[in-house]
Amino acid sequence: MPGDGIGPEIVAEALKVLERVAEIGGLELEIEQGLIGGAAHDAAGHPYPEATREQARRADAILLGAVGGPQYESLERDLRPERGLLGIRSDLELFANLRPAILYPQLASASTLKPEVVSGLDLLIVRELTGGIYFSQPRGIEQRDGQRYGYNTAGYTESEIERIARVGFEAAMKRNKRLCSVDKANVLEVSELWREVVERVGQEFPEVELSHMYVDNAAMQLVRDPKQFDVMVTSNMFGDILSDAAAMLTGSIGMLPSASLNSEGVGLYEPIHGSAPDIAGQGKANPMATVLSIAMMLRHSLNRNDLAERLEAAVGRVLDQGLRTPDIHGDGMQLVSTQGMGDALVAAL
Ligand code: ATP
Ligand code: MG
């Protein structure tokens, strides 16, 4: 589902790469194109049309480009492109959002932090995506004591906490066996429950070293010494904020993938960046974040870790060759277009 803005350009390159890696690995894929976001609104009158819903429901994995653009800002809320994204997330119950923040050594100078603080950075934020304050009832804007009052509710059920905690522990088991759960248990009852349930799930994973941190401290620690973290697990809103902060530590929004998974292993894979209308159609977009999202797809939905590693190695090789799209360009490097980067990745594979 290419979507809007630079979506179609980066997805086209990522699909070239996927087809090559599938060919190498003897992986048989049936690929369908789907409409989402503004593109779907233009063609079918809705950002998440029924036909797309049906495609999504029968897919093992979905690759999404990006949605949104200035031409859609005047649409009513329910027809905006972003609603397409919320629609597919809740429809498929994609409750676990995985956002790795990895600093490629070749791009160390792009970080906002000192090289010694970020070199070798490789952390994973596991964010709960379908519950918490963004979705809980009651919510609204109403009249109270003679003035307007806006409110939301930050609620989680035990089972919602349990399943996201399990994703966090399982991810930690596959990595360095350290999990930091982020909450605000000193102030919020919902966090008190969160902490209790995470502790309980932790008993199933005695090998994982579990720690807890208040979200304000976690924000500070992320920019002070991010390498102290391996896997972080947190609620929807805290994860939204912390993962954007973590992304900037790596300096390059064009390099960062994400996965959103449900309990059946079906996943939606997309770059963390948006539709970048300022550079759309100019061949300037970096397709790496989308390509790395495919690596996550191979790992989490298609059970081909071998091919995921191969793809990630190809990304490293192309960076070693000095090829750069404008967002990561620097002294002595060779500037390439979106398509040039896709071609180089295929060649590296
Ligand atoms: P959204 O609300 O959809 O997340 P946004 O307003 O946060 O969008 P982006 O679309 O992510 O913004 O773009 C932010 C900046 O990063 C823009 O200047 C854009 O050109 C740049 N950018 C985003 N993605 C890429 C990419 N893949 N390659 C190069 N530059 C990018
Ligand atoms: Mg954004």
Question: What report would you give on this structure?
Answer:
- Its main location: cytoplasm.
- Belongs to the isocitrate and isopropylmalate dehydrogenases family. LeuB type 1 subfamily.
- The protein is an alpha/beta fold.
- The chain is 42% helix and 16% strand.
- The chain contains 12 helices and 12 strands.
- The protein has helices spanning 7-25, 37-44, 50-58, 81-91, 115-118, 158-174, 189-202, 215-224, 236-249, 288-300, 305-320, 338-348, and strands spanning 61-63, 96-102, 122-128, 140-144, 147-151, 178-183, 209-214, 231-234, 257-261, 267-271, 323-324, 334-335.
- The strands form 3 sheets. It has an 8-stranded mixed beta sheet with strand order 1-10-9-2-3-8-6-7, with helices on both faces.
- Strand 6 (178-183), helix 7 (189-202) and strand 7 (209-214) form a beta-alpha-beta unit.
- Helix 6 packs across helix 7 (189-202).
- The protein starts with 6 loop residues before the first helix and ends with a helix.
- The model has no long low-confidence stretch (mean pLDDT 96).
- Bound molecules: adenosine-5'-triphosphate (ATP) and magnesium ion.
